[in-house]
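Q: I'm building a small set of examples for a reading group on sequence design. Run inverse folding on the following structure and report the sequence directly after it, with nothing in between.
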């Protein structure tokens, strides 16, 4: 019979129990320390040439560097609006032309245009902005099926991490406009709605362009979310739905005015 492993027979291998510990943001209760390797072993006994780059502690530095690069590249960006929508929209289609007009109108109203830098609606909005001689920005994302930044992006920043990129959209935009899209667009829309609903960002319009495309979702939100009490009826007012480019600009300008009013300075 195999000898029983007890603290006496295997003194060095026994996991050590520690009491509650607070390590920065992390709370450890009844923690077990099972790591019986030494720091030197972990440093010198590498498993492969790129092991270090894939361990979470090092990943944190890459995440950090992505924040630093993003903040650095975008810090001088003037007032801007982000435009989201399908990567699959084709040039010449109605949604493509709407996005192009929105890009142009935003520039004429004094805003830079930020998109995901990809094809479809993103390209169209960048194109409208660039054709109107405005500031056209693309925040690209590394994807398995890389499509690269579209040709109408004047300032492009590529990100590895979705969540870092999302921070940039929010930090450097005064409003979000969502054109018809798929999961990516819905993700961007619902994340921004959550941030406005929870008060993380204020006076931040979320505009859904294309009423017939969005009607079913709005109805579902009303019938299911409001009816079941998972959102309050007032939350519906966080979403603006329109088919008018002029209305888009009016909504954004009004929100800007209310910010300047709160600060008691006129809008520039
Ligand atoms: C699918 C194709 C290329 C994808 N390239 C993208 N580049 C940049 N940003 C993207 C890309 N795809 C999605 N996004 C982001 O999500 C939104 C669109 O996603 P949807 O699922 O198409 O609605 C968009 O706003 C971007 O921020 C080749 O066709």
């Amino acid at each position: 019979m195999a000898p029983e492993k007890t603290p006496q027979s295997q003194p060095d291998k026994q996991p050590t129990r520690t009491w509650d510990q607070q390590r920065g943001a992390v709370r450890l209760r009844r923690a077990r320390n099972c790591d019986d390797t030494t720091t030197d072993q972990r440093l010198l006994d590498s498993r492969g040439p790129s092991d270090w780059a894939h361990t979470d502690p090092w990943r944190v530095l890459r995440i950090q560097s992505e924040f630093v690069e993003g903040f650095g590249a975008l810090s001088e960006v003037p007032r801007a609006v982000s435009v989201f929508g399908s990567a699959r929209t084709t040039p010449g289609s109605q949604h493509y032309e709407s996005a192009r007009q929105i890009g142009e109108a935003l520039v004429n109203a004094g805003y830079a245009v930020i998109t995901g830098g990809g094809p479809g609606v993103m390209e169209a909005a960048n194109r409208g902005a660039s054709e109107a001689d405005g500031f056209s920005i693309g925040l690209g994302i590394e994807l398995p099926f890389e499509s690269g930044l579209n040709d109408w992006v004047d300032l492009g920043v590529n990100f590895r991490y979705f969540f870092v990129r999302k921070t940039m959209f929010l930090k450097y935009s005064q409003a979000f406009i969502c054109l018809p899209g798929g999961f990516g667009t819905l993700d961007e829309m619902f994340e921004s709605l959550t941030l406005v609903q929870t008060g993380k960002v204020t006076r931040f319009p979320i505009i859904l362009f294309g009423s017939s495309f969005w009607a079913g979702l709005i109805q579902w939100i009303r019938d299911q979310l409001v009816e079941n009490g998972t959102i309050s009826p007032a939350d519906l007012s966080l979403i603006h739905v329109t088919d008018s480019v002029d209305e888009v600009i009016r909504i954004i300008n009004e929100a800007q005015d209310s910010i300047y009013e709160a600060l008691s300075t006129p809008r520039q």
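The chain has a mean pLDDT of 86.
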